[in-house]
Amino acid sequence: APHVPLDATQKYLDRFPGPMPDRRRECLAMMSAVDDGVGQVMATLRQYGLETNTLVFFLSDNGAPLKITKADSKPVTKQGWDGSLNWPMNGEKGMLSEGGIREPWIAYWKGRIPAGQTYRQPVISLDIGATAVALAGLPHDSMLDGVNLLPYLTGENPAAPHDTLCWRWVAQAAIREGQWKLLVGG
User: Fold this and answer.
1) Cα(164)–Cα(55) distance, rounded to whole angstroms?
2) Residue 56: which residues within 8 A CB-CB, separation 6 or more?
3) What is the largest CA-CA distance in the chain?
4) 181 phi, psi to nearest 5 deg
5) Is the distance from CB of 67 to CB of 34 less than 8 angstroms?
6) Using one digit for the tens of pLDDT, what is the confidence trace for 152-167?
7) What is the value of pTM for the model shown?
8) CA 176 to CA 93: how far, in whole Å?
9) Residues 67 and 54: beta-carbon distance below 8 Å
10) Gap between the terminal Cα atoms of the chain
């Protein structure tokens, strides 16, 4: 969330008064609902003393769909654009350009990952699985993509976790090495 069809409750819509496109208000309201849900999860971890034993990843799966521009079109429907923007990145959901795959994410583990840092090296969601396998004390299967991010996030390993990153989606493929990225197809 947020995701189409946009359908926020009045409780969350009321948090964003003032003039703005309807879908933008719906998107903000749905993000506010997610924020409340994450707050409930974190409060429960604290309540049961699990916060120092739990690694939390929070991320999106893709960039915003841009089938409609920034302004609402008439008539307004709840399908299509979700009110978010990828600017200044190029592309959208379903594309391997930066607007489709570059997403902010948060990793939180009280007492293990230093708070307030910004990690600037490229990572991929596949790293979450590899990190979970490592934390469970299981061997890293050679068929498993991704790397254990914990040594990088704690500062134990100052190197970048990946030399290259690769993606494939429908008729598109991309590879990134350092600051260079090759995108083909689609």
Assistant:
1) 25
2) 41, 42, 45, 106, 107, 108, 109
3) 55
4) -140, 130
5) no
6) 999 999 999 999 999 9
7) 0.81
8) 18
9) no
10) 26
